[in-house]
Design brief:
This protein is mostly helical. Helix 26 runs parallel beside helix 28 and helix 38 packs parallel to helix 40. The two termini are 49 Å apart.
Length: 940
């Protein structure tokens, strides 16, 4: 503890050298308002939720505003040592705060701090109270002071009493932030913090992190973010538990696949056990029943033999272990707590708990589930009842429960009845795949593959695992090999395996030619076997690869797949061809049909289809609405896509990409870049080359719009390399060409930019990608302006903006108007530039495109540079935008190193660019350059 552990800084807000706590911006902003206004605030919440980290961030922000900060952290042993916390506080303050105290008060402080012996009459309690009040007044006399009291529940009673008296007399300049972990189970530590009466302070409950915020926490700590959804379920958003789980995964011998159960051992289990350790035996017994129940409520637990369930659950809620709804529903705050409680309980107790729950269950499905879990040995009669219960759960639409019961039925089947057990394992694996329960699919498949099963059954079990793998296909090579071997001589099964191989060849191996070949062979075999479902899926995959490769037959193949798919009833169960049709419409900017078809299909998919289809459809809708300029709708759909992704435990890379696109349209460029970076990382972890390209494109585009020219160029070059490796021919599938060309132009490579546009133009024209050509026209106009052909550039930009508007692409229309304003500003046509900016602002405002609206402020953009004066227009017009920007920096006195830092380029690049500037302007020194710039510098 010390009086000023945070160095003061002459800036507002948090220090720039490190980011603030993840997901705590709103809490910190509230503290910034509350502490100056009311002077008192209390942070409270369960252990591990991040209270101390928030307090540190608040202290840093206070120090950055020039406030003094005093930090008092009570230790576990302090509660039993009289005066310990008060002594620590007084011992840490600077000498001047004590110097002005009267002698009796100084003596009382010396006795408390064991610097002097106590007088025979004992300590003077009033002198000590007044001394602490005087010290706080002295500290606040020199300016605002923030006193942070961490772990306030550990303070000894005398120190709490002294501090309460002192705070009552403290001046307004003293602000106090207390941090408290509530005492969980009553007793002496259960009373409220006695530093002030409740009405004197704002109480801020620190909530758990959302799944998306938790993913950012994992990224910051170098932990695998691709499993963020599953880690969130395990930790409940508690940062300490989440990091323990993440570090357990990082310590694992190899990467954990989506289909595998999380190895929640070691530090993860230890963290959960520490939270459960203080639980009283009666509370623990009630929590165990809640952990075993399918849908626990206080009433259910009371009927199951826990008469004091409400009181015991209230104690557990205070400890942050469970959350209680108004209707009595009980939910564990972290899945890890529930699983640790069950795992650490012996089978006899678990069996007794299930038996008690079975006796009082009012739902036959739940009753059978508990009887099966309480059984001590396999029983065919019971297994048949469980299988029937699984069918009832499926009929209700509860696919996760149906998958659990299907596997439980297999496990209840006697070992002597091998064929029946194998059949139930195959059914369990398939049901788990339909429910997107990768863990159950792998459990069923592993059990089956360890038995003497027929090749066809082994193939079906492996297919279930492959279907729940999401992006994570790179670590499953052995499974593909065995599936191919076992499907020999079975055309229908071989077709199904080839279909999955086709997906792997594209996503993981970046080989669309090989992927197309596998899809074609799959379609032929499926047709020969009379399997319409696999044939439709294979034709859909073939059409997808044809589109990538620029084949003219893509649409005809897709129409054939769609016709097969639409014969299925009920609608919404199989949707791949319909979703790809919508995506093709998106690629072609036929946004009206794409939107209408999406909204028509979405309810059917949500009711009957697999969760992966719902996720892809929502992601596609986000892209469609962002492209249409319906920014609020895009953000809503992208958010739903991410929520479903994390709930299903799938890799969030694709959903983060969709959020990056939506945020770039209507949120903020900073958040868009953050989501894009997360998507890049997750896609790299999964080995997904397709979404790696998309995420890099989203990041590079935002970097370009934000003026980070060098970073954008580096990112977009990666996109080009990746797309070339993927052999992608159709430029409409990912519109990186125009973005890279603009980045090249900003990076002082106009020849390379023009060459790129010349390469993509004929391909786009051959394939009929008219809006791709419009995007290229926008960048070509900037090339014309950079070459001094401003009139041609203006004409082309006006025409392109109008044509974009005709296609309903309002953000692209506004982007053309922004470019037009830049060109007009450079040639000093201020009224024309202002008119273009106003038109762009009107477009963006109607669309709700907040980040784009910010680009319409009447100031030079990142590529503009200042506009030349009319007298110098002829000379300066020969400079590119990048050269003009550098010329003004150097003309204002910047060194080569300073210019390189401000432009995010190397010093060598600055030197080469400066040489070209000297040659074009016929100058030989910086002084001559400043003279050539003349009035343009004065105008700045």
């Amino acid at each position: 503890m010390g009086p000023t552990p945070y160095p003061a800084a002459p800036v507002d807000g948090a220090p720039a050298d490190r980011p603030g706590p993840v997901g705590r911006g709103a809490l910190l902003a509230r503290l910034d308002r509350v502490l100056p206004a009311r002077g008192r605030a209390l942070l409270t919440g369960p252990p591990g939720i991040g209270k101390t980290e928030i307090a540190h961030a608040a202290a840093e922000r206070a120090a950055a505003r020039g406030e003094a900060v005093v930090w008092l952290a009570a230790q576990p042993a302090d509660h039993a040592v009289t005066g310990a916390s008060a002594a620590a506080l007084l011992a840490s303050v600077p000498a001047h705060a004590l110097a002005g105290l009267p002698k009796p008060q100084r003596e009382a402080v010396a006795v408390l701090c064991r610097e002097a012996d106590a007088p025979p009459a004992g300590r003077d309690p009033m002198a000590l109270r007044l001394a602490l009040a005087g010290v706080l007044r002295a500290l606040a006399g020199q300016g605002p002071v923030l006193l942070v009291v961490d772990d306030a529940q550990r303070m000894d009673p005398e120190s709490a009493d002294l501090l309460r008296f002192a705070l009552h007399l403290a001046p307004e300049a003293l602000r106090v932030l207390a941090v408290e972990t509530p005492a969980p189970y009553g007793g002496g530590g259960g009373a409220p913090l006695p530093l002030w009466v409740a009405s004197e302070a704002d109480v801020l409950l620190v909530p758990p992190l959302h799944a998306d915020e938790l993913a950012e926490l994992l990224v910051r700590n170098g932990l695998p973010a691709r499993l963020a959804g599953r880690i969130h379920r395990s930790s409940g958003g508690n940062p300490r538990l989440a990091l323990a789980v993440g570090r357990t995964l990082a310590d694992a011998p190899g990467p954990v696949h989506h289909a595998e159960a999380l190895p929640l051992s070691g530090r993860a289990r230890d963290a959960a056990r520490r939270m459960l350790a203080p639980v009283a035996p009666d509370v623990r017994a009630t929590l165990l029943l809640a952990a075993l129940a399918l849908r626990p409520t206080a009433a259910l637990l009371r009927r199951a033999g826990r008469p004091a369930a409400e009181a015991e659950l209230a104690a557990a809620e205070r400890a942050g272990l469970v959350a209680l709804a108004e209707d009595g529903t009980v939910a564990f705050t972290a899945g890890l707590l529930r699983s640790t409680l069950v795992q650490d309980t012996c089978w006899t107790e678990r069996s007794a708990g299930h038996a008690a729950l079975a006796r009082i269950a009012d739902d036959p499905v739940e009753e059978i589930r508990h009887r099966a879990l309480a059984a001590g040995a396999p029983d065919e009669r019971l297994a048949a009842e469980v299988a029937a219960a699984g069918e009832r759960a499926r009929g209700r639409g509860d696919h996760p429960l149906a998958a659990e019961l299907a596997l439980l039925a297999a496990e209840c089947t006697p070992a002597a009845d091998g064929p029946r057990r194998v059949g139930r394992l195959v059914e369990a694996a398939g049901e788990a795949a339909r429910a997107a329960r990768a863990d159950l699919a792998l459990r069923a498949a592993s059990d089956l593959l360890a038995r003497d099963a027929a090749p066809a059954d082994r193939v079906r079990a492996r297919l279930a695992v492959l279907d729940t793998a999401g992006q994570g296909l790179t670590d499953l090579d052995e499974m593909y090999v065995h599936a191919m071997e076992d499907s020999e001589g079975e055309p229908g099964l071989r077709a199904a395996v080839l279909l999955r191989l086709s997906v792997k060849y594209m996503l993981a191996d970046a080989d669309p030619v090989r992927a197309r070949g596998a899809a074609v062979e799959s379609a032929v075999l499926a047709a020969a076997a009379g399997d319409r479902h696999t044939a439709a899926s294979a034709l859909t995959q073939q059409a997808r690869m044809d589109r990538v490769l620029g084949s003219p037959g893509a649409e005809a193949t897709l129409a054939e797949a769609r016709a097969l798919e639409m014969t299925d009833r009920p609608l919404g169960v199989r949707n791949a061809a319909q979703i790809l049709t919508i995506r093709h419409a998106l690629f072609d900017d036929r946004l009206g049909p794409a939107r209408d078809q999406s909204y028509a299909l979405l309810p059917l998919v949500e009711r009957r289809g697999p969760v992966e289809d719902a996720i892809e459809l929502l992601r596609t809708l986000a892209e469609v609405e962002a492209r249409r300029g319906q920014c609020a709708a895009a953000l809503a759909h992208a958010g739903r896509s991410l929520a479903l992704t994390l709930e299903a435990g799938l890799s969030p890379g694709p959903a983060w990409y969709a959020l990056a696109v939506a945020e770039a349209a209507g949120g903020s460029f900073a958040r868009a870049a953050g989501y894009a970076r997360r998507s890049v990382r997750a896609s790299e972890e999964e080995g997904d080359q397709v979404f790696l390209s998309r995420a890099l494109w989203a990041l590079g585009r935002v970097q370009s719009l934000a003026g980070e020219a060098a970073a954008a160029l580096e990112t977009l070059r990666r996109v080009r390399a990746n797309e070339h490796a993927l052999c992608t021919v159709d430029p409409a599938m990912l519109r990186w060409h125009e973005e890279l060309a603009e980045a090249l132009l900003a990076g002082d490579a106009p020849d390379e930019a023009r060459a790129l546009l010349a390469d993509v133009g004929p391909v786009a024209e051959r394939l009929g990608r008219s809006t791709v050509l419009l995007g290229c026209d926008r960048v070509y106009a900037l090339c014309l302006a950079a070459a001094g052909k401003a009139d041609e550039a203006v004409d082309l930009l006006v025409e392109t903006a109008d044509r974009f508007a005709g296609h309903g692409l309002v953000l692209e229309q506004g982007r053309c108007l922004l470019a037009l304003a830049r060109v007009e500003r450079r040639r000093r046509r201020r009224s024309a530039a202002a008119a273009a900016l106003q038109a762009a602002a009107a477009v963006f405002e109607r669309a709700g495109a907040a980040p784009w609206l910010g680009l319409t402020a009447d100031r030079p953009g990142p590529l503009d540079g200042p506009a030349p004066e009319p007298s110098g227009a002829g000379a300066l017009a020969v400079l590119t935008e990048a050269e003009l920007t550098l010329a003004h920096l150097v003309g204002e006195g910047a060194s080569n190193q300073e210019a390189a830092a401000r432009l995010y380029v190397s010093v060598k690049t600055v030197e080469a660019r400066l040489t070209r500037i000297y040659q074009k302007l016929d100058v030989r020194s910086r002084a001559q350059l400043a003279s050539a710039l003349g009035g343009t510098l004065r105008g700045r």
